Amino acid sequence: MLGDASVIFQIAGIGIVVAMIHTILKQMGKEEYAQFASLVGFIIVLIFVINGISDLFQQIKSVFLFQG
Amino acid sequence: MEIIQIVSIGIVSSLLVLILKEQKPSFTFFIILLTGIYIFSFIVKNIGDIFQLINYLGNKANVDGVYVDTILQIIGIAYIAEFGAHITRDAGLGSVAAKIELAGKILILVLAVPILTAVIETIVGLIPA
């Protein structure tokens, strides 16, 4: 069960910060570090989302499929 | 009033998606996905209550439990398939979404086989030998 809707805000915040870091690094001419920062942000968000999907599938299973 | 909360979450996540779409389109997809999950976890308890009512009515009407369970499983498969198809279609993979829908239909048909068999057996039993 998800706690509250703050996960959505967290993801949006991480997205904005990662976009900012990406832009700054690109301006500094470190293209490869910019790509790396994007990738790390992506993976962090992916972990959130995978937890959410796992919760969702557990709930669907318990409600729809295995109910007496 | 849960509906106000759900609509507010929808509006807020659409605003966040609009903000983020310029910079990072891949993150917007995750926001859409988590919004769907969150709204579902809001209503999942109510769905459980409705299913309890359906089970209760089925028991009162002396319907075989297998049939009620099959119907609930079919609803579950339909919901999961619909969710996955919508998510993949939002991500721009329309063909994969179509395949998911096809798989959902076929699995539902497989689950409905015992019910169809029972119907056919009943009809055959009605015909005088």
UniProtKB/TrEMBL annotation, chain A:
Keywords: Membrane, Transmembrane, Transmembrane helix
Family annotation (InterPro entries): Spore_III_AC (IPR009570), Spore_III_AC/AD (IPR025664)
Pfam families: SpoIIIAC
TM annotation in the entry: 6-24, 36-54
Protein name: Stage III sporulation protein AC
Phylogenetic placement of the source organism: Bacteria, Bacillati, Bacillota, Bacilli, Bacillales
Name of the gene: spoIIIAC
Automatic annotation (TrEMBL), chain B:
Presence of keyword Ion transport: no
TM region positions: 6-21, 28-47, 67-85, 106-127
Claim: Transmembrane is one of the keywords in the record: yes
Domain of life assignment: Bacteria
Record key words, sorted: Membrane, Transmembrane, Transmembrane helix
InterPro entries: Spore_III_AC/AD (IPR025664), Spore_III_AD (IPR014211)
Signal sequence region: none
Pfam family, one: SpoIIIAC
Name under which the protein is recorded: Stage III sporulation protein AD
